[in-house]
Automatic annotation (TrEMBL):
It comes from the Bacteria. It holds the Pfam family DUF2197. This is DUF2197 domain-containing protein. The lineage of its organism: Bacteria, Bacillati, Bacillota, Bacilli, Bacillales. InterPro entries: DUF2197.
Length: 66
């Protein structure tokens, strides 16, 4: 089955035997996160547990890159 990552909108294909595919079939497709975003979020969540602060932090970091 094809799944779309909610963050980067990358389309991934999961094997039907994949336990994650079975799980997603019973849930809305927007719950899927690709490995990359999963890792990124896991790391960021560890650094900062407040989602609002994380969002601000993320925006500031983005601006600082330019
Ligand atoms: Zn992603």
């Amino acid at each position: 089955m094809k799944v779309k990552c909610v963050i980067c909108e990358r389309i991934d294909t999961l094997q039907d035997e994949n336990p994650l595919a079975k799980k997603l079939r019973n849930r809305p497709i927007h719950t899927y996160l690709c490995d990359e975003c999963n890792d990124r979020i896991a790391t960021k969540t560890k650094e900062n547990r407040d989602p609002e602060t994380y969002r601000l932090h993320h925006l500031l970091n983005k601006e600082a890159d330019f």
